[in-house]
Amino acid sequence: MGRLVKALKIGTVSYSKGLLLQKHFADLHNKNYPTNSNVLLCLEHHPVYTTGIRTEQYTDSEVTKLKQKGAEFFRANRGGLITFHGPGQLVVYPILDLRQFNPSVRWYVSQIEKTIINLCQKYELKAETSPHTGVWIGDEKICAIGIRGSRFITTHGLALNCSTDLSWFDHIVPCGIEGKGVTSLSKELNRTVTVEEVIPKFLDSFAEVFECDVDSSWKLEVEEIVQNVGV
């Protein structure tokens, strides 16, 4: 296929460390690092609510109430509205140079959606897009998408509910969409579907949809990078 994307399986990290990891790899692109510096950061977060740049300011009391549930709260420089990240949810931050694929953010978001739909098909689940952002099974969102593009370099990404405790979403209006629910692979399949199980299938789907080669053997560098990125 030619294009190479490296997949980093990072484990569970804080949201702030996830931001720093994204910055680290985005900076490599911006410094004209070798062209194979496209990466997928595959990880889970400790419980955290995040809002995008279009979200109206949450009051201090609203933020305090969310924090009292046991989660952190961050305002992120991504698209999309409020959502939750936590254990059992596969978060993927693709740090890509779109000039090596297609320099269109709309195309990129569509490819992310197609990747998740392809992944769900591997589980014989019918997922689809809607006028609302993300990927849905019926009226319930299974994957949230919120991305940022700057000088053709992508950051932020997607959050796929695998075995997520969906009660965390009870305290918010996910992605600002009233009257809709959330679901997970575990809920749909009536069994526990772990992030570890899903990652290889996600990488296969990503490679198919983005027409690239994905190298998931990059492990020593992960440990070094995580240790060197301070919080």
Automatic annotation (TrEMBL):
Annotated GO MF terms: lipoyl(octanoyl) transferase activity
GO BP term, example: protein lipoylation
InterPro entries in the cross-refs: aa-tRNA-synth_II/BPL/LPL, BPL_LPL_catalytic, Octanoyltransferase, Octanoyltransferase_CS
The family this protein is said to belong to: Belongs to the LipB family.
Span of domain BPL/LPL catalytic: 34-214
Subcellular location: Mitochondrion
Record flagged with keyword ATP-binding: no
Pathway named in the protein's UniProt entry: Protein modification; protein lipoylation via endogenous pathway; protein N(6)-(lipoyl)lysine from octanoyl-[acyl-carrier-protein]: step 1/2
Active-site residue list: C175 (acyl-thioester intermediate)
Name of protein: Octanoyl-[acyl-carrier-protein]:protein N-octanoyltransferase LIPT2, mitochondrial
Reactions accelerated catalytically: octanoyl-[ACP] + L-lysyl-[protein] = N(6)-octanoyl-L-lysyl-[protein] + holo-[ACP] + H(+)
Function: Catalyzes the transfer of endogenously produced octanoic acid from octanoyl-acyl-carrier-protein onto the lipoyl domains of lipoate-dependent enzymes. Lipoyl-ACP can also act as a substrate although octanoyl-ACP is likely to be the physiological substrate.
UniProt entry tagged with the keyword Phosphoprotein: no
Annotated source species: Phaedon cochleariae (Mustard beetle)
Top enzyme category: transferase
E.C. code: 2.3.1.181
Record-level GO cellular component terms: mitochondrion
Subcellular location, principal: mitochondrion
Pfam families listed in its UniProt record: LplA-B_cat
Keywords (A to Z) from UniProt: Acyltransferase, Mitochondrion, Transferase
